[in-house]
Amino acid sequence: MTGKYALVLVTVGERKEAEKIARHLVANRLAACVGIVPQRSIFRWEGKVAEEDEYLLMIKTVSEGFNALRDAVLAMHTYEVPEIISIDITNGNAGYLDWISKSVD
Fold it and tell me: 38 has which bridge partners?
């Protein structure tokens, strides 16, 4: 069963791309807030271990809007196989969770 709220994680390779996606999601009421965090990722790709500087988007939204959010990210993302992972938010500050609901269509 899915909770009412979700934290969606997306990684991108460029800060401008991260900001573009974040602005689009918030402006179109697909997300209440997007935090952007620089990170170093070590991962397996095409049979090899790779390392890249990336940006992690921490997207706060409602679970029922995940499909529209995912589709918007896929339309804008430059990776062949982008990370788009939704994690249920099961507890949180009630006022903050209410703000998420009011900020997302």
Answer: 55
Phi-psi region of 29 (alpha: psi -120 to 50; beta: other; left: phi over 0): left
Burial status of residue 12 (CB atoms within 10 A of its CB: 0-12, 13-18, 19 or more): buried
Sign of the Cα torsion 28, 68, 57, 87 reads: positive
Is the pTM value of this prediction over 0.85? yes
Three-class DSSP category at 105: coil
Beta bridge partners of 86: 8
Tokens of 80: 């062949």
Q: What is the pLDDT of residues 14-61, one digit of tens each?
A: 999 999 999 999 999 999 999 999 999 999 999 999 999 999 999 999
| Total structural domains within the chain | 1
Q: For residue 50, what are the domain limits?
A: 5-103
